[in-house]
Amino acid sequence: MTNHWIDIKNADAILIMGSNAAEHHPISFKWVLDAKSRGAVVMHVDPKFSRTSARSDFHVPLRSGTDIAFLGGMINYIIEKDKYFKDYVVNYTNASLLVADAFGFENGLFSGYDPAARKYDRTQWAFQLDDDKVPKRDPSLNDPRCVFQLMKQHYSRYTLDDVSDITGVSKEDLVKVYEAYSATGAPDKAGTMLYALGWTQHTVGVQNIRAAAILQLLLGNMGIAGGGINALRGEPNVQGSTDHTLLYHLVPGYMAMPIADWQTLADYHKANTPVSYDPQSANWWQNKPKYFNSLLKGWFGENATKENDFGYGMLPKIEKGANYSYLFLFDRMYQGKIEGGFIFGLNPMNSVPNSNKLRKAMDNLDWLVTVDVHHSETTDNWRRPGVDPKSVKTEVFLLPSAHRLEKDGTVTNSGRWQLWHYKAVEPPGEARTFGDMLVDLMNKVRTLYTENSGAFADPILKIDWPKRYDADEMARRINGVFTVDTKVKDKEYKKGQLVPSFVALADDGSTSSLEWLYCGSYTEEDGNKTKRRDPKQTPMQAAIGLYPNWAWCWPVNRRILYNRASVNLEGQPYAPNKAVIQWQDGKWVGDVPDGGWPPMATGEGKHPFIMTVHGFGQHYGPGRMEGPFPEHYEPVETPVKSHPFSKQLNNPCYVSVSSDMDILAEPADPRYPIVLTTYNVTEHWCGGGETRNVPNLLEAEPQLYVEMSPELAEEKGIKNGDGVIIESARGRAEAIAMVTVRMRPLKIQGKIVHEIGMPFCFGWTTPGSGDSTNRLTPSVGDPNTSIPEFKACLVNVKKADKLTELA
Amino acid sequence: MPKAFLIDTSRCTACRGCQVACKEWHELPANKTKQWGSHQNPPDLNPFNYKLVRFSESLENGKIKWFFFPDQCRHCIDPPCKNEAEGYMDGAVIQDEKTGAVLFTDLTAKLAPEACEAVRAACPYDIPRWDEKSGLLTKCTMCFDRVSNGMLPACVKVCPTGTMNFGERAEMLELAEKRLAEAKKTYPNATLADADSVNTIFLLMDEPQKYHKHVVASVRTGLNRKQFLSSVFGPLRRPMQRAVRA
Question: Fewest beta carbons less than 10 Å away: which of A106, A427, B237, B242?
């Protein structure tokens, strides 16, 4: 979230799209309903009428995978009807920047596409620079090469007729949403967008969110109270684990994973440190070397020296362009290229697409260590239905892990608040925390390396590794310490003392920090700030529900990101009743400002979007794989053969794996005419590995179901409560039919298209509950993130003669 | 002044936190359930579910409506179940003076099955359930143990949206009127269900029967003669039954 949970109450319009907030983030609705009581309009755009829809002012059903068409239509509507917040757009976004001549768009493709590589030459999308290498701007927004004009032209194709035709949303409903939401373009009005996996889990996932960003920038909704782009993150500390980067292409703090091309630290910094020549651009990432070197120092301690590039040479480097995401990892496992590994607290045999292939792939391992609270479809894959355990060669270990209530530590919520949680009870039996296990395991490996030597011993022996795991100690290391006596402003810090904020991190080896964004969370002055529970606030903060002394929030306890965009050039709030910050008597009051520079009008200011190179909010986003503007492309498995916006049917850059088990349906495949979308339920957590073992939750949602419209049910001779078989090109699943008016048939290109929906939380280790829904879904992913397209694929459905999985 | 619940269904998201918290607090075992084409599970109140969120959906003029009803004992001000039970035995059903909680005691196990059925039938809201195994009559306890110790009932404590509220009856009535006035702006048919006669006051967005057939006492249907008499004349029958049993 750019904002936070409580802040939702400040919105005048709430668009919930790509999310079933009420069911999957129940606490969100405390604040959504609060906003509604104050007169906010709440809209839910989603294929299914859910409990979220029931509490919204209205629900608009759309076909899965057509969000960009829907949002592109809104961009067009706002520009055509002059609904945007012009001052904001001119001053704070890149709408006025001029784009170089090489950029173009034709037949659904941007310039620079290489069909063989399925990649773009993104250098063709650059901005025009003046002699000082500062981007050229036209504040009148009239230059035909300015972002605003290019954007206007791009989305002029997204007419109500065409959008309606492909999304299945009536023109009346489109206008209803567009009108209500675009009203937040008024300077003192706020609109928020709440999204979750319904936007991300598509082959156009990243561009769905880019489209939302464009809308929020047009309407001046970024940086303000009640605004923002708000990703509702998952329960299992998804925000925290993302910040600490459980992703192959990043290291902690959203910095790139080293690749083979960058052999030295200088190479790494040259390739990754952005340069701006605009004195008004803070270009915050210019500080990256400080953060990266401090991370190296955190990893290798005394063994990280200036002379050895702070140990950079000891880091693994991935091949340029290689994909190590789980789609590709399991594909390599299927090809027999992986011998063994560890799976911690994850149930991929249930929650990763094409489960049938994955389950076979894991049979190829020689050994496997699983670490979990319960037995799951992953820990017990070797004895899955239809498989003789004697035929599986894998030696499988199951280590019992502690539950999160059985350990100390922090969780970072969606609003970026880092909160300490305390152990409630001791772990039972031999169960241990992941931290305990990992620290001891590594120490054992280090002992073996010391005694016996081994290949490439340096990173193992030279890492600054603790003797025992201690959550408090880890929190201190994450914050970071000075490695030599240092003076910050007037204050002396001794070697080993905590760094007060990331502003004090240095690139010379004098500081360490395992995550620069968390630097400032644990200080000499205030101790462990994640333990703070003080509701103290100023009247200005109280007006918007901002609690600066409750826990701690990254970065530097700033609760609303880009908050200098909430004020005019003089530093005065656009919405005085909901002011986030204000320039008063020569200083900022309210939230922690995004940089302490004075207002822009003083001439000493910096553009508010400090994390972008040029300091502007990006309508035009030249960094993404498939283009600087979001464009509608169909899901890889689509019920249509064409769409109205171009001849390019699918995302030209989507990623996929190929094997004999990775079969895809044809566009508009007559064998699989129905769209399937998949989702969570309130009562179970992700793949259900934990919650299916909680009897009271299993009582409330006991078995796999499929939600379908009465119209489809009648067509197929299915009654409510019947057992049915759902089949895709890859697999089949049994489910109980939930025939409901909450699923509506959609009219797409003049024809009725049915969509059905299934949860994915049931599995065979809970007998009679059903088995993985992901046996149906395809291994295709977004080119930026490789997130799979769980939300839209093609299936057929029929009444079952006999049920075995649900018996 | 007794305590009361205000259950504002216009804020309910059917997360079922209340349903599960109730089970957890009372340490009630899970039922073996099956998916039966509805999210409402278990399908009905039973000896191990004192609280159940009921789901009711319809398509009216192309508009989908989905109502959620977190059903539970109404803790009636003049409880027919108590009046009925006292016809058989004192102390099986009692009403706590201080909180107004209507409580089924262990003595209900000593009631004959027919008497249990009569107590059940006396309830205009179809709440009590009979546990065949223990012989006990069961229902919501108003978390009497928690409330007596200054805590909120478990269902109220966990509610994330302000649907479940609990406090002094006067406060709850005041809150109910305030919420009703607000709800009426969006839902012209909004009402408070039987607010004068119960301590579990539901704020409804629409006609009661759209939620569930036993939402208000007046729309109770399908009563046999015995049930009808029981509900109307329960208090009058009491001395007569005592006489009979004596």
Answer: A106
Chain B residues in contact with A26 by the CB 8 A cut-off are 13, 15, 17, 160-161
Cβ contacts from A onto B, under 8 A = 102
Q: The dihedral of CA B2, B8, B14, B15: what is its sign?
A: negative
Q: Do A110 and A193 form a contact (C-beta atoms < 8 A)? A: no
Is residue B228 situated within a structural domain? no
Which alpha helices (DSSP H) does A429-531 contain, by range? Answer: 434-452, 458-461, 471-479
The pLDDT, as a whole number, for residue A352 is 97
Inside any domain, residue B241: no
A705/B35 touch (CB, cutoff 8 Å), yes or no: yes
Chain B interface includes A701 (CB < 8 A): yes
ipTM associated with this complex? 0.94
Q: Dihedral sign, CA of A98, A100, A101, A103?
A: negative
For residue A496, what are the domain limits?
Answer: 238-316+467-531
Cβ(A408)–Cβ(A425) under 8 Å? no
- CATH number of the domain that B187 lies in? 3.30.70.20
Chain B closest-CA separation from residue A705 CA (Å): 7
Residue A372 to residue A641: CA distance in whole angstroms: 44
pLDDT tens digits, residue range A48-85?
Answer: 999 999 999 999 999 999 999 999 999 999 999 999 99
A720 touches chain B (CB under 8 A): yes
Query: Are A740 and A788 in a shared domain?
Result: yes
Chain A segment 280-299 residues within 8 A of B by beta carbon are none
Whole-prediction pTM value? 0.96
pLDDT at B246 exceeding the cut of 60: no
Residue A540 buriedness (CB in 10 A; 0-12 / 13-18 / 19+): middle
pLDDT tens per residue across span B41-56: 999 999 999 999 999 9
Q: How many domains does chain A have?
A: 4
Residues A155 and A222 in one domain: yes
Give chain B positions within 8 Å (CB) of A734.
none
Does residue B242 carry a pLDDT above 80? no
- Mean pLDDT, chain A cut into blocks of 10 residues (807 residues total): 98 98 96 97 98 98 98 98 98 98 98 97 97 98 98 98 98 98 98 98 98 98 98 88 92 97 98 98 98 98 98 96 95 98 96 98 98 97 97 97 95 96 97 97 97 93 97 98 96 98 98 98 98 98 98 98 98 98 98 96 97 98 95 98 98 97 98 98 94 97 98 98 98 98 97 98 98 98 97 98 94
Interface of B with A in 68-87 (CB under 8 A): 68
Q: Does A733 touch chain B (CB under 8 A)?
A: no
Per the structure, the complete domain to which residue B103 belongs is given by 1-26+39-220
Residues A336 and A443 in one domain: yes
Same domain, A269 and A335: no
Tokens linked to A674: 């129905």
- Chain A residues with beta carbon closer than 8 angstroms to that of B41: 699-702
Q: Is A306 exposed, middle or buried (0-12, 13-18, 19+ CB in 10 A)?
A: exposed
B20, B34, B37: residue with CB nearest A737: B37
Whether B205 is in a domain gets the answer yes
Do both A51 and A181 map to the same domain? yes
Q: Peptide bond before A555: cis, by omega within 30 degrees of 0?
A: yes
Check if B44 contacts A (Cβ < 8 Å). no
Is A718 part of any domain?
Answer: yes
Question: Is B239 inside a domain boundary?
Answer: no
Looking at the fold, whether A308 and A443 belong to one and the same domain comes out as no
* B162–chain A Cβ distance below 8 A for any pair: yes
Q: Looking at A531, A547, A572, which one is the last position of a domain?
A: A531
